[in-house]
Amino acid sequence: MINRIDHIAIAVSDLDSAIDTFINLLGCDRSAVAIHEVPSEKVRAAFIPVGQTKIELLEPLGDDGPIAKFLSRSGEGMHHIALAADGIENETERVTSLGLTPLGKVSEGAGGKKIVFLHPRQTNRVLVELVEPKAHH
Ligand code: CO
Questions:
Q1: Which of 9, 49, 102, 122 has the most Cβ atoms closer than 10 angstroms to its Cβ?
Q2: Environment class of 98 (CB within 10 Å of its CB; exposed 0-12, middle 13-18, buried 19+)
């Protein structure tokens, strides 16, 4: 079941400066920010809570990962919307049967959560991520 936006992600070139911008905008404390390195995706990700959802700031690690490529192609800006998907394998199967295209298999993302991305071609050029709400260890 999908019933919530888990986070909205923004690609940034300088994570620390972007964290400052968004904690100032939201009026929250830096201690609320969770930072994860995800070497498999070649990113450093900061999650800033906003009520039930979060803003994710993505900074490239190195210059050949997906976020580095996104920045060099499009510059900073909105990168993806993540939907909380209870039973992510079943939801991935369901949306695949509707004609959407998962980019790879369900795998481990930031914070050890199960995630999968869907090709933006079937979702009006918006990259969509499904994320299992609870961490699996
Ligand atoms: Co994300």
A1: 9
A2: exposed
